[in-house]
Amino acid sequence: MKESKRQKQFSGLIQKDLSDIFQRNGASITGSSKAFVTITNVHMSPDLSIARVYLSFMLSENKQALLDAIVMKKGEVRRQLGNRIGKVVRVVPELLFFLDDSADYAAHIDSLLADLDIPPEEEEED
C-alpha cells in the first residue's frame, strides 16, 4: 500500500530524531560502545500510531543481540522521542524495531559475483 504524504513526512521526522537519539545515547541503549546504529527506514501505519523502524548495525558481531537490547529499552527510546516530537504530534507512535540486513545481502551478492570464473568470449572467424 502506498504511503500518504503525511505518513512520509512523519516517518522522516521519526527517522531524523531516532537517528539523533541513537547517535547521542546509543551506548546506553545498546549496551555496546562499539556498535554503530543506523536507522535505514521508517514505515508509518496509516493512522500514524505505529512506526516500523528498520535498523542496520556496523562494527558488531552479534546483530540480533543488539536488536534484542534495543527492543528491551524501547520504552526509554519512545520516551526520548516523545520529548523531542511531543509538541508536533498528538500521539507518540509505538515503535517496532526490525533488523535491516539489506547491506549484508548486497555484500554477499558482491562477493559471489567477484568469485565467478567467467572465461573470455571466443572470437568468431568470418
Question: What is the topological layout?
Answer:
Elements: H1 5-30, E1 36-44, E2 50-58, H2 63-72, H3 74-85, E3 94-99, H4 102-114
Parallel strand pairs: 2-3
Antiparallel strand pairs: 1-2
Helix pairs in contact: 1-3
Query: What does the main sheet amount to?
Result: 3 strands, mixed
What is the number of strand segments?
Answer: 3
Going by CATH, what is the homologous superfamily?
K homology (KH) domain
What is the CA-atom radius of gyration, in angstroms? Answer: 20 Å
Distance between the termini: 55 Å
Under CATH at level 1, the class stands as Alpha Beta
- Count of helical stretches: 4
Q: How would you write the strand order of the largest sheet?
A: 1-2-3
**Integer average pLDDT:** 86
CATH architecture: 2-Layer Sandwich
Shape descriptor: elongated
Fold and architecture overview:
The protein has a single domain (5-114), classed as 2-Layer Sandwich (GMP Synthetase, Chain A, domain 3), CATH 3.30.300.20. 48% of the residues lie in helices and 19% in strands. The protein contains four helices and three strands; from the N terminus they run αββααβα. The chain has a three-stranded mixed sheet with strand order 1-2-3, covered by helices on one side. Helix 1 packs across helix 3 (74-85). It is elongated. The termini are far apart.
